[in-house]
Amino acid sequence: MELFRANDSFTRSCGLQMAANADGLRFIIDGVIGNVVASISVIFNILLFYVFSTSRRLRRQNYANPVLLALFDVFTSICYVLLLPLQVISYRYDVRTMIGRWIGYVRIVHCIQHVCVTICNFLLVVASIERLFANYPEGKQKTVLVFLVKRKVGKIMAIILIAIFMKGTLLFETTIEHLPYCEEFDRYVPVLASNPGTFVAILYWGRKISTVIVPFIILIYCNYRIVRQLRMKHRENQEQSIKKRSIRGNLTKSSIRHYYREKRGVRTATKTLVLVVGCYLLSNHVSIILGFWEYLAPSEIKQYYYEYLIVSDVASLLTVFGCLMRLPIYCVSDVRIRKAVGRALFRCRVRTIPTEVRQRQLDKWSIVVVSNSLRSNLTGMNNLFASQEWLPGRSKRARDELALLLQNRRKILVDMTFKLAADSKEEEHSHGDNNTREVWLTDILEEDSLPDRRNSQFRSLLANV
């Protein structure tokens, strides 16, 4: 949303009515839905930034652009919360402290948001160009791709500098107008510093074309060419594969099914194209329509100013919604990213589980582990010995070791239990605790006994040992 209006007669006559226009509908759009969408966008993009910056596998796959894209999407969502939802809430409920702070930082945050959105658009364009050149055969495109990949730092710095050059001047083109004859909450309004004219219109449309329209066209073209190239490559590979199978005479139904499964890569690329371009179109087409409306029919804006505010709020909300959709798009389109996100969530879940365990409880469960391990080893030895009949020496040695474990199993468990009880008594006496609790063999939980099986020569042999 363009928070800064032209400094004309409509503004100076208190026509903006910032307090009156912060009604229930705008509160729902910005204060409720906008806050929820922006908060989820911040969480999703922080997760994306963590995944891309910590995964070695993704870093090796030249995923530098999504790291920065997620970072600047976080800034864009935070700026949105500070600009629109906070403004509507503070003016609706007459929170003077928040209104004063909003008036103080609105120019800076407004400029930062525009710079971040421009950087995100340029990063999408560069990523699409790199992906397009990566699918070309050897030639000039590969040379350009190698040049871009080897100069990541210079490429990123150039994008940031261009975005600052195009949008950073908004800080000097805006100001806060003081209207002493208006109502209390409408006396300070954000306006453009210069009067609307030919130069301002050229500057506005130059920014709009270079930062919104041109990136959108390039994104469509690059993804369209990528899909075409993938289709051609898959078609050639499938034709060669079918010819080889037909010559060998093994063209079967399974090979035909494999032929259709080979189109999965094309479907994935097509899905990525539809999602990325559709999300970009959804989040920017309303802003473009508003731009045409502002400079083709400015008088209509003054007449339907409240409706214009609603459409502007929806346009800003769609921009943040586009930032939110980055994570679902990546997860749907790329299996590697989906698995990396799952691993990151699993690590976060594991870190929340308490890991402190009392020492005697750890000793107690170690007895259980030893007992169950011995039982498990005894359970599956029949098959092991059956598979080792052709190695009589090794089989006899394994039988002897197993018989020794079986013979001393109870003694090992009893010694471990009494050792645990003695250590527990010493620990409780050292702490002055009189409520001593004995540890008995019945406290040790083992696996349920397996059902009786028919006697075998091996069991009778162990019984005689």
TrEMBL record:
SUPFAM superfamilies recorded: Family A G protein-coupled receptor-like (SSF81321)
Any one GO molecular function term: G protein-coupled receptor activity
Alphabetized Pfam families for the sequence: 7tm_1 (PF00001)
Primary subcellular site in the record, as a coarse category: membrane
Domain G-protein coupled receptors family 1 profile: 44-330
TM stretches of this protein: 27-51, 63-84, 104-133, 153-172, 209-227, 273-293, 305-329
Source organism (scientific name): Cylicocyclus nassatus (Nematode worm)
InterPro entries on file: GPCR_Rhodpsn (IPR000276), GPCR_Rhodpsn_7TM (IPR017452)
One of the record's GO cellular component terms: membrane
CDD domains: 7tmA_FMRFamide_R-like (cd14978)
Protein name: G-protein coupled receptors family 1 profile domain-containing protein
Compartments, as annotated in UniProt: Membrane
Keywords, alphabetical: Membrane, Transmembrane, Transmembrane helix
